[in-house]
């Protein structure tokens, strides 16, 4: 079992290093989000959405509270405070045999949080 990519992900999140995202993505990853209506396919667009998420979600209150790790996937539970709203989330990350992220799925709740994140993501996507 290799979790090298998961360790790299945590390092990027901790350092808020959006520049390193491309190094951990497969050539054709798929990004899914409860904030985006359709799946986003491809390295450039996935990197853009993840970079916007870094700016939107990874403040000082962001924390991973639970992880379930398998051979080529992980489920990570998150909490963060945004504009006085308590936000829960789950990231489901799948990586390929080359230890590159091939599929990244994010789900957040409650609905009030989804709306706040959507607004922030729009601004974040404009700046990346």
Write up what this structure looks like.
- There is one protein chain.
- The chain has 128 residues and is α+β, with helices and mostly antiparallel strands.
- The protein has a single domain (4-127), classed as Roll (Nuclear Transport Factor 2, Chain: A), CATH 3.10.450.50.
- Helix content is 34%, strand content 38%.
- It has helices at 4-15, 43-57, 111-127, and strands at residues 25-33, 40-41, 63-69, 73-82, 85-95, 101-109.
- Strands 2-1-6-5-4-3 form a six-stranded mixed sheet, covered by helices on one side.
- It is globular, with a radius of gyration of 14 Å.
- It starts with a helix and ends with a helix.
- The model has no long low-confidence stretch (mean pLDDT 91).
Series of secondary-structure elements, N-terminal to C-terminal: HEEHEEEEH
How many distinct folded domains? 1
Mean pLDDT: 91
Q: Main beta sheet: strand number and arrangement? A: 6 strands, mixed
Portion of residues in helices?
Answer: 25-40%
Which class do the helix and strand fractions yield? Answer: alpha+beta
CATH architecture level-2 label: Roll
Oligomer category: single chain
Number of helices: 3
* CATH class value: Alpha Beta
Q: In one word, what is the shape?
A: globular
Structural Rg: 14 Å
Order of strands across the main sheet: 2-1-6-5-4-3
């Amino acid at each position: 079992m290799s979790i090298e990519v998961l360790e790299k992900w945590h390092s990027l999140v901790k350092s808020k290093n959006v520049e390193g995202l491309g190094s951990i993505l497969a050539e054709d990853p798929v990004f899914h989000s409860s904030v985006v209506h359709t799946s986003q396919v491809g390295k450039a667009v996935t990197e853009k959405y993840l970079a916007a998420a870094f700016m939107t979600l990874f403040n000082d209150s962001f924390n991973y509270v639970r992880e379930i790790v398998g051979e080529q996937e992980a489920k990570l539970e998150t909490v963060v405070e945004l504009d006085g709203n308590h936000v829960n989330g789950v990231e489901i990350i799948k990586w390929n045999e080359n230890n590159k992220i091939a599929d990244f799925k994010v789900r957040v709740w409650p609905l009030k949080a989804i709306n706040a994140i959507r607004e922030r993501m729009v601004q974040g996507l404009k700046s990346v």
